[in-house]
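seq:
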Amino acid sequence: MYGMVNKAIEDMVISAHGAELWEQIMLKAGVDVELFVSSETYPDQMTYSLVGASGEVLAIPAQQVLEALGEHWILHTASKNYSDMMAAGGKTLREFLINLPNFHSRVSIILPDLTPPRFHCCDAGDQWVRIRYSSHRAGLAPFVAGLFRGLGKLFETPVTVQQVVAKGEGVDSDEFLVAW
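struct:
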């Protein structure tokens, strides 16, 4: 994964719990990187180790860490570092979610080695969107749910996020129903 993901985990932990706790997490994860470079790639296992160690140190499930990271990504990382791309996604939550499949095409211009996840808008109503999420990486559905919750907050639109299909045996993607 790109360093920006590990930097986001670091920022989330330090802003909520302080640098000392982050050092404990790095030690527990066995990660000895002084500074994550946003545009540099790191082994996926390093990111998974940071998430797992964060859960252990904070005494919460890794799923909860991923959900919080999804929200943090939207409200802090993406909003600050990619505000122009975020603004181009739409003026409302509904527009943004419907345009989400095009988002990583724009990101790929900046990050040419990116192997992005795929989003597909399966169906939409006036107050809901059903989105399919596919990735070669396992276990990130809670992160995606957090992204959707973060988008609701970004657009000042209270949302409910329900995972209606889970990737698994015979199913190659997750699906979410985002309603407001």
